[in-house]
Amino acid sequence: MNVQRCLDILREIKDVAFATVDENGFPQIRIIDVMIVENEKLYFCTARGKDFYHQIITNGQVAITGMNKEFQMVRLNGKAEKLEENRKWIDRIFEENPSMNAVYPDESRYVLEAFCIEKGDVEFFDLGKEPIVRESFTLGNTMAKEAGFLITDSCIHCGKCERICPQKCIIDCKINQKHCLHCGLCAEECPVNAIIKRGK
Amino acid sequence: MNVQRCLDILREIKDVAFATVDENGFPQIRIIDVMIVENEKLYFCTARGKDFYHQIITNGQVAITGMNKEFQMVRLNGKAEKLEENRKWIDRIFEENPSMNAVYPDESRYVLEAFCIEKGDVEFFDLGKEPIVRESFTLGNTMAKEAGFLITDSCIHCGKCERICPQKCIIDCKINQKHCLHCGLCAEECPVNAIIKRGK
C-alpha cells in the first residue's frame, strides 16, 4: 500500500464523502465525485452557489472517506486549494467524467470551481482482514500525526492487555500498530495505567 | 419518501460516513456502521479509546451521509446522545449485527458505547433521476432550515434564469426547489440581482 494507491481507491469509489465545518462550527457532509487523481493529487469541483463551496473558500480544511466492496477504507484529511485556470480544469474534468454533462449541460459547467488537495494525512484500513490492517501516509510535505496507544516503561508485564485485546495485537508488551483498532480497552484495563494515548 | 425511509436507506447502506469537528475546529470523518434504525431513530456505537468517541462526547453534533447503488443519497445532521443502559444496547447491537463479534469478541464488546440520534435535519437526493430530486425532512421536533435560492419581487421577468438553469427547474420565474442543484448560476446571472440565497 502507498499513498498514490490510497488516492486511486478513492477515485475508483468515485462517490466519496466530504466533511467540512460550517460557519457555526458544526460538521457538514455530502457525497462528492473524485474527478481526477494523478501525481499524488486529488481533484474535485463544486458549484459557487453551494454551502460546501463557501465552507471550503473560508477554511479549506476537508476530510474525505470512502470504502470499496473489499472493505478497504481510505481517510484523507487535507487542505483544498482552488485552482487557477478554472475553465481549463473544468473542461478537463468533464472530458474525464462525461456523465457530468447531464447535470451541468453546455456553458452551465462554468458555475463549477475546481479544487486540488495535495497536502494532508492519509489513513488506509483493510477491514476485510482478521486482524484488521491499518497504515498511515502523508500527502505532500506534511508531518504525520501519531495516533492510537503506547505501552510505556511503567509496564509491569502482567500480560492482561495481551489477553483482552480484541484484535490480539499486543505481543510482549508491545502494540502492533498495524492491527490496532484504537479501541482503548488495553489502556482502560491496565492495572498500573502504563498505556497512554499517542500524539496528544 | 419520508424520514423513516431515509433512515432505512442509511441502515441498508450500513457503512456510512460520519463527520465530526475535532478539538482544533477541523473536520474529521470515518466510516461507521448504522447498527439499528427504528421509530425514526438511528443507533450506532464506537469505542471509548477513539478520537471519534471524544469528539461526540465533547460536542454531540454529527453529520452522516451515504449513497446506495441506485444513486439515492441521504444526509443527516443531528445530535448524538449517549444511551443509558449501555450493556443492554451493546448486546442488542451485537445480536442484530453478529459480524461485530469478529471485531470485538467476548467481553471486549463493552469497550463500545452506544449512541442514538433522534433529532436533526434529513435531506434526501435522487441523483439517478433527470432532473435530480431533493426533499428535506426533520427528525424529532427540530425546525427545518431553508436552503437554496429564491426569486424575489425585484424580478423583471426577463427569462434569463429559465434559459440557463442546468436542471431546467425554473418555470414562470419560480424555482422548483424539488429539482434545484443549489448551484447558484441563476443568482449569478440575474441582471437585476433579484435572486437571493434562502435561510441566511
UniProtKB/TrEMBL annotation, chains A, B:
<dbReference type="GO" id="GO:0046872">
    <property type="term" value="F:metal ion binding"/>
</dbReference>
<keyword id="KW-0479">Metal-binding</keyword>
<comment type="function">
    <text>Ferredoxins are iron-sulfur proteins that transfer electrons in a wide variety of metabolic reactions.</text>
</comment>
<protein>
    <recommendedName>
        <fullName>4Fe-4S ferredoxin-type domain-containing protein</fullName>
    </recommendedName>
</protein>
<dbReference type="InterPro" id="IPR012349">
    <property type="entry name" value="Split_barrel_FMN-bd"/>
</dbReference>
<dbReference type="InterPro" id="IPR011576">
    <property type="entry name" value="Pyridox_Oxase_N"/>
</dbReference>
<feature type="domain" description="4Fe-4S ferredoxin-type">
    <location>
        <begin position="146"/>
        <end position="170"/>
    </location>
</feature>
<dbReference type="InterPro" id="IPR050157">
    <property type="entry name" value="PSI_iron-sulfur_center"/>
</dbReference>
<dbReference type="InterPro" id="IPR017900">
    <property type="entry name" value="4Fe4S_Fe_S_CS"/>
</dbReference>
<keyword id="KW-0408">Iron</keyword>
<feature type="domain" description="4Fe-4S ferredoxin-type">
    <location>
        <begin position="171"/>
        <end position="200"/>
    </location>
</feature>
<dbReference type="Pfam" id="PF00037">
    <property type="entry name" value="Fer4"/>
</dbReference>
<dbReference type="Pfam" id="PF01243">
    <property type="entry name" value="PNPOx_N"/>
</dbReference>
<keyword id="KW-0411">Iron-sulfur</keyword>
<keyword id="KW-0004">4Fe-4S</keyword>
<dbReference type="InterPro" id="IPR017896">
    <property type="entry name" value="4Fe4S_Fe-S-bd"/>
</dbReference>
<dbReference type="GO" id="GO:0051539">
    <property type="term" value="F:4 iron, 4 sulfur cluster binding"/>
</dbReference>
